[in-house]
């Protein structure tokens, strides 16, 4: 039993319109689903991804208008990476960020690949990583009508960084999920332990988690610019049930199976407090919308459809129709 890699990552925004503009226009990702947070239907849940939101390509956002900025610290998902095709792509992106005023560092080597660290308008810490020397989980397929040329477009999620104070317990849970140590790389901060690079399944950027130990930071606080949870891929419902049994066997408090309609989920926290999700690869986002118009209308799963009028009355209008 091993997870297949990264499925999606969910973050928080306080300005859904600005978020939509940045991720679709500046980053060129496709909005593949405009729906609501099923646990709080007054909030949008936006899914950005490749051409159809294939598993492993989805960066999602819960919209909480007016939410305070998050505080970086331990017990958090501190950086999210996005894959691009090549080292040359990073040159393209560095110029694009300069032209658009996006805060970024110079292109540099990190954990065996060329990387470009940057922030979104709300301070979320992100990175673009080159797939030029990458092997393992296949990349997604950029949307042909995206704002960025396909040869440089974002193709999916890359390594996710977990920042913790006590790495042993986090590593134990990752081990339970099938992650194995790949390497260790120097810390970003002096006098801190090496960052431990873990990978699952076929490996590569789409199946990598980097565990960063920080003894000099306080616990992170949630808010805009922060990350809510990370989800890992499981093949199908049968495998999901097997994982539920394993989590129960190891006495890990968990949500039990949760039907999200576009995929099935299981949630639990690892010992440092970071929320993990296991999510099935299907059925996917084209279940209730044509491929051509994904993300253009508010989509609701069948169990929320009877409440559409009530839900829409509490949402701030967000025009995501594309010409």
Q: What order do the helices and strands come in, and which of them pair?
A:
Blueprint: E1 6-13, H1 16-26, E2 30-37, E3 40-49, E4 58-63, E5 76-84, H2 87-100, E6 108-110, E7 113-119, E8 125-130, E9 156-164, H3 167-176, E10 180-185, E11 195-199, E12 208-213, E13 227-234, H4 237-249, E14 258-259, E15 263-269, E16 275-283, H5 308-313
Parallel strand pairs: 1-4, 5-8, 9-12, 13-16
Antiparallel strand pairs: 1-13, 2-3, 3-4, 5-9, 6-7, 7-8, 10-11, 11-12, 14-15, 15-16
What report would you give on this structure?
- There is one protein chain.
- By secondary structure, the chain is α+β, with helices and mostly antiparallel strands.
- An eight-stranded mixed beta sheet has the order 2-3-4-1-13-16-15-14. It has an eight-stranded mixed beta sheet with strand order 6-7-8-5-9-12-11-10, with helices on one face.
- 45% of the residues are buried.
- The chain is built from five helices and 16 strands.
- The chain has a single domain (6-313), classed as 2,3-Dihydroxybiphenyl 1,2-Dioxygenase, domain 1.
- A hairpin with a 2-residue loop joins strand 2 (30-37) and strand 3.
- It has helices at residues 16-26, 87-100, 167-176, 237-249, 308-313, and strands at 6-13, 30-37, 40-49, 58-63, 76-84, 108-110, 113-119, 125-130, 156-164, 180-185, 195-199, 208-213, 227-234, 258-259, 263-269, 275-283.
- The longest helix is centred in the first third of the chain and has 14 residues, at 87-100.
Relevant terms:
Ring-cleaving dioxygenase, 2,3-Dihydroxybiphenyl 1,2-Dioxygenase, domain 1, dioxygenase activity, globular, dioxygenase, eight-stranded mixed sheet, VOC_core, alpha+beta
